[in-house]
Amino acid sequence: MADNVAKFEHDDASVVVVVGTGAGGGVLANELAQRGIKVVALEAGGRYLPEDYINDEWDSFAQLSWGDMRTTSGDWRIARDFANLPAWIVKAVGGTSIHWAGASLRFQEHEFRALSTYGRVDGANLLDWPITLSDLEPYYDLAEKKLGVTRTNDWPGLPGNNNYLVLEKGAKAAGYSKVSTGRMAINSVDNDDRMACQQTGFCFQGCKWGAKWSAAYTDIPRGEATGNLEVRDHCHATRIEHDADGKVTGVRYIDKDGTEQLQRARIVAVAGNSIESPRLLLASASERYPDGLANSSGQVGRNYMRHTTGSVYAIFERPVRMWRGTTMAGIVQDEAHHDPSRGFVGGYELETLSLGVPFMAAFMDPGGWGREFTSALDSYENMAGMWIVGEDLPQETNRITLNPGEKDRFGLPVANVHYDDHPNDIAMRNHAYAAGERIYRAAGATRVLPTPPYPSTHNLGTNRMSENPRDGVVNKWGQSHDIPNLFVSDGSVFTTSAAENPTLTIVALAIRQAEHIAAEMEKGTL
Amino acid sequence: MTVAHNSPSGSNVRGLTRRGLLARAMAAGATFVVGSGFVAARDAAWAVETTTLKPATMATLIQMARDIYPHDRIADRYYAIAVKGYDTAEKAQMVEEGITGLNLVAKAQGFDDYLSAGWEKDRVTMLRMIEHTPFFQTVRAGLVTGLYNQKEIWPVFGYEGESFSHGGYIERGFNDIDWL
Q1: In this structure, are residues A462 and A281 in contact, taking their beta carbons and an 8 Å threshold?
Q2: Which residue of B has its CA nearest to A362?
Q3: Partner-chain residue, chosen from B124, B149, B176, that has the shortest CB–CB distance to A162
Q4: Which B residues, 32 through 91, put their C-beta within 8 Å of a C-beta on chain A?
Q5: Are B157 and A209 inside 8 Å of each other by CB?
Q6: How close does chain A come to B77, measured CA to CA in Å?
Q7: Is residue A378 within 8 angstroms of chain B, CB to CB?
Q8: 3-state helix, strand, coil in chain A (%, to 5)
Q9: Which has more confidence, B21 or A517?
Q10: By Cβ atoms counted within 10 A, which residue in A70, A391, A433, A516 is the most buried?
Q11: Does B10 score more than 80 pLDDT?
């Protein structure tokens, strides 16, 4: 932590309060602080830096994960396999930017126009984004510079590890051509006071070298160093307050001592991830806003997306040792385009992934047992693995609601996460399983394991952006349609999910939002 | 409850002599020596002392654990470690009832009890008949971490675990695949 860290009074109504410090909130807080704006960032979790991260899957999970009670419903397999763990995300200063794999892909042009491109799809609540790729391109440029994304700005790609080499061999043999070690926010050379990747593995457990970008050790301390940012860790936001005019005035939270506090605010930006952000807005219901804040459209909490995912692991005659090196070490992008002749709209990426033995046992076939299960694990050393990440469709009924039947440790209703797979999601997943199998068979696999989705790491869409206030929660700046000094600054603003890993877009939107907020404050309109 | 590790040549496990254990093993004719408050390996390499569960129950539970996640290159003591947490006053009733139920299923299948079925496929048939019970699901779910999170067994799978202290794999074979 910097020496001159700011300390603001609870009744200082001139500050911007940012709830959450991940890729959205952490970047927004720093970008505002760099522009001279005073910020209090509330973070429910604790502070962990590279020296604290643990090269051990369960120990790290206990250290970093958002483990507070949640409930699930719907026909997705998560509701059966991980009923109280719908999402695998982080509760810490820096948020899930500690855990993310680092894949940094720009959305494709047509993905900002999902409704126009795909047309109406039964059961889906498709909508075009209120922004286009060209609107976001300058901010993608800034985000790629900030994150040090390989294969941009003359930074070389990362070298491929064993898991990548198997993928590359199989993908090319199967006829794919867009195969590479991808664009990663992992240093391939020393950059930005962070060293190059040492191929350690354990990317999901926090990079102990700091080679992977995380807000925890970049944007957060840099924001603090300006003297304009105060990060309060172990502070859990419980309610956003508003005045008689309907504008928000501050955030109630429980501090690290368990005491309720109220931080007054000029502007509130919510960035608690697509589960906690709508939960907070819904929990802030009042006489004036009986359905929750920013919810005149009724869309708060709806259109929850988590990407069409799944994994394909395969066993080979000889060792692969997939855990060595970068976890997400390579990508096949030939299926990322939109081609409805495949039987679904949208596209998907295939990205290498590996799990250690403890997580492989937990996630390979949750609930599975017996020789079919253990004979696969017995060949763990000979396994390669890839992850599917594809565009899932927004559905109004896939949503975050408050579950009055389950309370958290503060006595507040927990979030229920409801998700039903859309037929389009199922068709895409099956197509991707077949593609993954074809790739690995082409590289000589003796056995292929189509592995079900893990608890969601990409949580999107529950406060979506829309041109028309009727269709969504926030406008193209992430500003709520209903309340001008209430913003949303995380992946929950995504109008649709696109096929790409979301972090780069979250960061680009946060930079753009900070610029907008600063300009409006300068003009006196905020 | 404790789990004691001894060298295979050790002569004393928790106060039991090697000879005594072996004698009981012969008498029991089972995978495990079941003494008074003990479950031990036939070679006396290790022993589990039970405080609440009946030793026969613990022995059955250990076999059940192996049958759920059978790895022929993983020794019984790791399965014993994985289930030792059930030997508490709080959990004993659930386990005793669960194992009693499993032994009833075994009788219905024509065996004296679960441990008397010599072939894994016969025992797995019994487990399939109880796999939807809370008892089975509790034991299975507990094994996912109780067994696979034991670092001592990771080498069996080739898994190398922590790598930061070794400087990662950049100089240690991250791209050493030679058969592609």
Answers
A1: no
A2: B144
A3: B176
A4: 67-71, 73
A5: no
A6: 18
A7: yes
A8: 30, 20, 50
A9: A517
A10: A391
A11: no
- Is residue B130 packed enough to be buried (19+ CB in 10 Å), middle (13-18) or exposed (0-12)? middle
Task: Judge whether A417 and A289 are in contact, CB under 8 Å.
Answer: no
What would the pLDDT profile of A393-422 be if each residue is shown by its tens digit? 999 999 999 999 999 999 999 999 999 999
ipTM over 0.85: yes
Q: The tokens of A406 are what? A: 């389950």
Which CATH fold topology does A16-523 show? Answer: FAD/NAD(P)-binding domain (3.50.50)
In chain A, what residues touch B157 (CB-CB under 8 Å)? 357, 377-378, 380-381
Q: Using a CB-CB distance cutoff of 8 angstroms, which residues of chain A are in contact with residue B67?
A: 370
Query: How much is the pTM?
Result: 0.94
Q: Is the pLDDT of residue B35 over 70?
A: no
Asked whether residue B44 is domain-assigned, the answer is: yes
Q: Which residue of A has its CA nearest to B176?
A: A162
Q: What is the largest CA-CA distance in chain B?
A: 59
Residue B179 lies in a domain: no
Q: Is the CB of A172 inside 8 Å of chain B's CB atoms?
A: no
Q: Which residues of chain A are under the pLDDT cut of 50?
A: none
Domain enclosing residue B122, as ranges: 2-152
Domain contains B157:
no
Domain tally, chain B? 1
The yes-or-no verdict on residue B1 having pLDDT over 50 is: no
* Backbone angles phi and psi of A357, in degrees to 5: -55, -45
Tens digits of residue pLDDT in A336-370: 999 999 999 999 999 999 999 999 999 999 999 99
